[in-house]
C-alpha cells in the first residue's frame, strides 16, 4: 500500500511517498509554483548506507585517551543506548563540576532540519541552558560581519534578514538593479525552516518582463540566470569596495549626488566625501583608480554610476561579499552609494542584501515570527563569534576582540554538536582538527556519518525528520507545514529531544527539560502559541487539529507593496533610525571609537592579504570562490543522486576559465589537485568561459575524505581544506572564506576512490571492546 505523508525540508515542502516502511519517492507540494530538484535526493539519503545505525564510542576515548588524542581515526565501538546515555551524563557532570559551564562548547552551529520542535540545535541549547549554561556561538557564517555592522549604520538587520523592499515594488518602480554577486538561481532553492513556495524565479521573471534592467557584477556570469538578460561586469573577487568608491567618485565629479538626502537623512558625509575625493588620504578614488584594482574598465564604472543616478535604481549585494577579509567594507560602501543616490526608502529604490542569497528575500509576506521553541536562557555561559571557533580552541585564557568587546576565551573541555557540521562549515579544516583534538570529550548527535560524527568520541544516532512528527515554519515563508512521521526510526536512531531528555533524567532535570510534554503535546503547544501571535498580527489561523489534518496553513500575503525604510525616508525626525544619530551613519563614531586599525569610522578600500592583487598571488595565482552548492544544502544530501550526478570521477567539480586551463595543460573532465599552504584536495575539472580568468570556483559540501596522515590530501573536493581561517576584522569577526588563493595542477597518479559515503567499519570482535 502506498501512503502520502505531508512533510517539509529547507529545500521544499512535499509529500513523502511511503511503501512498506520506506520512503520511495516524493511529490512536491501542490502550492509550490517552482519546486526544486533537491527533493529528489530525499529517499536515497534517508535510507543511505551512511546512516548511523546505533550509538558508538571511540575506542581510544574508552581507554582514557582524551585531551590531544587524534580524532577521525574511525575506531568506533558499538554501545547500547543505556550505556551511551550513562557515559554522556557522567561526563557532562564531571566536566561541569571540574571546569565549569563555560568549558562546554554547545554553540553547535548549523542548519539542522526544517522541523521547529525537533530542531537539534535548539534542543541542545535548551538542554545545556537548563543544566547551567554553556559556551555558545554568536552571529552566523551567512552574514556574521554584516549583522554586526548594520545595527551601527542603519539601526536594523532587516536590511539583510528581511522583510526587505519586495519584488512587487521592484517590478513596479525599479528601472535598473545593480546586483553585486548576481542573483544566482541555485541559492533560491532553500529557505531556513522550509520553503513552502519557491517564488523567486516567478518574481525575477516578472521584474524582467516589467522592464527592469539587471546588471550582474560578479566574477561568474552564471550568477545571473539567462532569462534576465543581465549585463555581466566581471569583477576581480574582493574588490567590490573599490568599484563602489569609483562609482561614488564618478557621481561626485558630475554633481549627481543627492545633497538633500545626504544632509537630512545621513550623518558623516563630511567625513566620507573627502576620502572619496582623496582629500583625506591623498588618493582620489577615481574610476581609473578603481579600474586598476577591480579589472573593470573606468568607462564601465562611470556608466554604471550615471545610469543608477538617472533613474530608479535598486542596489543589492549577496551575502557572499561580506564573507571575505574586510567583508564589512563593501556592504557599508553599498549603503553609502545608495545614500548618495538618495533612494533609500523610496519604492523600488535603495539597498538591501541577499535578494540572490535565499528563497523568500523580497517575497511579499507579513512580518510574522515562525513557530518555534522559546529562546533558551544561558545563565553561566558566554558567546564567541561563530567563525572564531578554532581560535577558541587554540587560545584559552586569551582575549578575543569583537565589536568593541574583549571576550576572555574559556578553556573548552567538552564539545557537543547537534544539527551542524563544523567539518563542513569551518575554514582551514586541518587547523580546525588540531584545535578540536584539544578537547577531552566530543559528543555528536547526527543521522549520518558526516566528518563531524567521524571526529567524535561519542556518536549518538539521530532520526531524520521523516521518522518523527514536527512543524515546518520560517519567517521568510508564507506556509506553516505539518510534518507527519512517514517511517519508523531507522536502526536504533532516536529523536534528539528524547535522547537529551534521558540525559537530563540521569542528571536530575528531565521534567524541567520536557515540561512533562510529549511530542504531540509540544507540537500542539508551539502551534497554539504561534496562533496567538499571528492573531495579534491580524491573521486568524485555524486550530491545531484542522492545521494538522489539512497539512498546512497559508498566511496570505499583504495587499500593499512593502518598502523598507519608507517611514524614515518620508520623515526622518518622526521616524528616526535606531542608530546613535537616528540617521544613516556614513561615519560611525561608535565604530571609530573601537580603535581598530583595520576598520575605521567610514567605509574604505583595504587590501585583503589574499586576493589577485596581493603579493601571495605570485605563488598561488588563482582566486578560489567556495560557493553554495546547487546540488545539495551544504553537506546535507551529498549522499543523494542529485549531488552524485554533478561529480566528475566522483569528485567535486572545479570551475576554471579555458585560458587558465590551457596554460596549465589541463582539460575538461580530468582530475586536478587544488592546493595552497593550508591543504590540498582533488577535484574534477570543468571548463567554463563564464568565469573571470584567474578565478576558480568550487561548491562547498562534498564530505571531507582526507588521507589518514596529518594534513592529508582530501580525495573528494572539500574547499575548506584550502580556505583561510581569519575573521573579517575585529569589528565583525565574520567568516572570510571567500578570500583564498590557490594553485591547480593535473593529478595524473591513480586516485583512491572516495569512500566517505560508506559507514566506517566498527570494531566488532568483543576482544577489541575495552572494558
Ligand atoms: N568555504 C566556505 N565555507 C562555508 C561557506 C562558504 O560560503 N564557503 N558558507 C557557510 C555558511 S553560510 C553556512 S550557513 C555553513 C553551513 O554549515 P552547516 O549548517 O553546519 O552545514 P549542514 O551540512 O547543513 O549541517 C547540518 C547538519 O545537521 C545534520 N542534521 C540534519 N537534521 C538533523 C537532526 O534532526 N538531528 C541532528 N542531530 N542532526 C541533523 C545534517 O546531517 C548535517 O550534518 O557553512 C559555511 N561554510
Ligand atoms: N542550493 C543551495 N542554496 C543555498 C545554500 C546551499 O547550501 N545550497 N546555502 C544557503 C545559505 S546557508 C546561505 S548563507 C546563502 C548564501 O548566499 P550567498 O552568500 O549569496 O551565496 P554564494 O554562493 O556563497 O555566493 C553568491 C555568488 O557571489 C559571487 N561572489 C563571491 N565572491 C564575490 C566577490 O568578492 N564579489 C562579487 N561581486 N561576487 C562574489 C560568487 O560567484 C557566488 O556565486 O545561500 C543559501 N542557499
Ligand atoms: Mo549560511
UniProtKB/TrEMBL annotation:
What cofactors does the UniProt entry give for this protein? Mo-bis(molybdopterin guanine dinucleotide)
GO cellular component, as recorded: outer membrane-bounded periplasmic space
Q: Which domain of life is it from?
A: Bacteria
In this chain the Molybdopterin dinucleotide-binding domain maps to 622-740
Biological-process GO terms, alphabetical: anaerobic respiration
| Molecular function GO labels | electron transfer activity; molybdenum ion binding; molybdopterin cofactor binding; oxidoreductase activity
Molybdopterin oxidoreductase N-terminal domain: residues covered: 7-47
CDD domains xref list? MopB_CT_DMSOR-BSOR-TMAOR
Q: The Molybdopterin oxidoreductase domain covers which part of the protein?
A: 51-505
Which keywords are on file for this protein? Metal-binding, Molybdenum, Oxidoreductase, Periplasm
Membership in a protein family: Belongs to the prokaryotic molybdopterin-containing oxidoreductase family.
Could you identify this protein by its name?
A: Molybdopterin-dependent oxidoreductase
Amino acid at each position: 500500500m502506498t501512503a502520502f505523508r505531508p512533510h517539509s525540508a529547507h529545500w521544499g515542502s512535499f509529500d513523502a511517498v511511503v511503501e512498506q516502511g520506506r520512503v520511495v519517492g516524493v511529490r512536491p507540494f501542490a502550492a509550490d509554483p517552482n519546486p526544486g530538484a533537491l527533493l529528489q535526493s530525499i529517499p536515497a539519503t534517508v535510507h543511505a548506507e551512511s546512516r548511523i545505525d546505533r550509538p558508538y564510542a571511540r575506542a581510544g576515548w574508552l581507554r582514557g585517551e582524551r585531551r590531544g588524542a587524534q580524532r577521525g581515526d574511525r575506531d568506533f565501538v558499538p554501545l547500547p543506548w543505556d550505556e551511551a546515555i550513562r557515559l554522556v551524563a557522567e561526563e557532562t557532570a564531571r566536566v561541569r563540576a571540574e571546569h565549569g559551564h563555560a568549558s562546554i562548547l554547545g554553540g553547535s552551529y548549523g542548519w539542522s532540519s526544517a522541523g521547529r520542535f525537533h530542531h537539534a540545535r535548539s534542543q541542545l541549547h535548551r538542554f545545556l541552558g537548563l543544566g547551567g549554561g554553556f559556551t555558545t556561538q554568536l552571529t552566523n557564517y551567512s552574514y556574521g560581519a554584516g549583522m554586526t555592522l548594520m545595527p551601527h549604520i542603519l539601526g536594523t538587520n532587516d536590511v539583510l534578514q528581511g522583510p526587505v523592499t519586495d519584488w512587487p515594488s521592484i517590478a513596479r518602480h525599479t528601472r535598473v538593479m545593480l546586483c553585486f554577486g548576481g542573483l544566482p538561481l541555485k541559492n533560491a532553492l532553500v529557505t531556513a525552516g522550509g520553503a513552502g513556495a519557491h517564488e523567486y524565479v516567478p518574481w525575477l521573471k516578472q521584474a524582467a518582463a516589467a522592464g527592469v534592467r539587471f546588471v550582474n557584477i560578479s566574477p561568474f556570469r552564471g550568477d545571473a540566470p539567462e532569462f534576465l538578460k543581465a549585463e555581466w561586469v566581471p569583477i576581480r573577487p574582493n574588490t567590490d569596495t573599490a568599484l563602489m568608491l569609483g562609482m561614488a567618485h564618478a557621481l561626485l565629479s558630475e554633481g549627481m549626488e543627492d545633497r538633500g538626502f545626504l544632509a537630512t537623512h545621513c550623518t558623516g558625509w563630511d567625513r566620507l566625501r573627502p576620502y572619496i575625493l582623496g582629500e583625506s588620504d591623498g588618493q582620489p578614488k577615481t574610476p581609473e583608480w578603481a579600474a586598476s584594482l577591480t579589472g573593470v574598465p573606468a568607462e564601465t564604472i562611470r556608466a554604471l554610476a550615471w545610469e543608477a543616478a538617472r533613474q530608479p535604481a535598486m542596489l543589492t549585494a549577496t551575502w557572499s561579499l561580506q564573507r571575505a577579509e574586510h567583508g564589512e567594507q563593501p556592504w557599508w560602501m553599498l549603503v553609502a552609494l545608495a545614500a548618495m543616490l538618495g533612494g533609500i526608502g523610496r519604492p523600488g529604490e535603495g539597498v538591501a542584501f541577499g535578494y540572490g542569497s535565499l528563497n523568500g528575500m523580497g517575497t511579499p509576506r507579513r512580518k510574522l515570527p515562525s513557530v518555534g521553541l522559546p529562546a533558551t536562557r544561558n545563565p553561566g555561559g558566554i558567546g564567541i563569534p561563530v567563525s572564531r571557533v578554532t581560535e577558541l580552541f587554540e587560545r584559552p585564557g586569551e582575549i578575543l576582540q569583537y565589536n568593541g568587546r574583549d571576550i576572555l576565551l574559556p578553556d573548552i573541555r567538552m564539545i557537543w554538536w547537534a544539527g551542524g557540521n563544523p567539518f563542513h562549515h569551518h575554514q582551514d579544516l586541518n587547523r580546525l582538527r588540531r584545535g578540536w583534538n584539544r578537547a577531552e570529550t566530543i559528543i555528536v548527535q547526527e543521522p549520518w556519518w558526516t566528518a563531524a560524527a567521524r571526529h567524535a568520541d561519542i556518536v549518538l544516532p539521530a532520526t531524520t525528520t521523516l521518522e518523527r512528527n514536527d512543524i515546518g515554519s520560517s519567517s521568510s515563508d508564507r506556509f506553516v507545514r505539518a510534518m507527519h512521521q512517514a517511517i519508523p526510526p531507522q536502526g536504533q536512531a532516536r529523536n534528539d529531544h528524547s535522547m537529551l531528555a534521558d540525559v537530563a533524567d540521569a542528571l536530575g532535570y528531565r521534567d524541567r527539560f520536557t515540561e512533562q510534554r510529549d511530542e504531540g503535546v509540544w507540537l500542539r503547544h508551539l502551534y497554539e502559541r504561534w496562533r496567538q501571535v499571528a492573531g495579534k498580527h491580524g491573521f486568524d489561523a485555524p486550530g491545531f487539529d484542522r492545521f494538522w489534518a489539512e497539512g498546512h496553513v497559508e498566511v496570505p500575503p499583504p495587499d500593499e507593496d512593502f518598502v523598507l525604510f519608507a517611514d524614515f525616508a518620508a520623515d526622518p525626525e518622526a521616524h528616526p533610525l535606531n542608530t546613535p544619530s537616528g540617521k544613516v551613519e556614513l561615519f560611525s563614531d561608535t565604530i571609530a571609537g573601537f580603535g581598530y586599525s583595520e576598520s575605521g569610522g567610514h567605509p574604505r578600500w583595504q587590501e585583503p592579504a589574499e586576493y589577485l592583487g596581493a603579493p601571495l598571488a605570485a605563488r598561488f595565482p588563482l582566486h578560489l570562490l567556495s560557493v553554495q552548492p546547487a546540488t545539495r544544502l551544504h553537506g546535507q544530501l551529498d549522499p543523494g543522486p542529485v549531488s552524485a550526478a554533478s561529480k566528475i570521477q566522483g569528485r567535486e567539480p572545479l570551475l576554471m576559465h579555458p585560458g587558465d586551463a590551457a596554460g596549465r595543460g589541463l582539460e575538461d573532465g580530468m582530475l586536478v589537485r587544488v592546493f595552497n599552504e593550508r591543504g590540498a584536495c582533488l577535484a574534477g575539472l570543468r571548463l567554463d568561459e563564464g568565469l573571470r580568468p584567474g578565478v576558480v570556483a568550487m561548491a562547498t559540501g562534498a564530505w571531507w575524505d582526507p588521507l589518514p596522515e596529518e594534513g592529508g590530501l582530501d580525495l573528494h573536493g572539500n574547499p575548506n581544506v584550502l580556505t583561510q581561517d581569519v575573521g573579517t576584522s575585529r569589528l565583525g569577526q565574520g567568516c572570510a572564506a571567500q578570500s583564498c588563493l590557490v594553485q591547480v595542477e593535473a593529478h595524473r597518479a591513480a586516485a583512491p576512490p572516495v569512500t566517505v559515503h560508506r559507514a566506517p567499519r566498527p570494531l566488532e570482535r568483543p576482544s577489541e571492546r575495552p572494558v
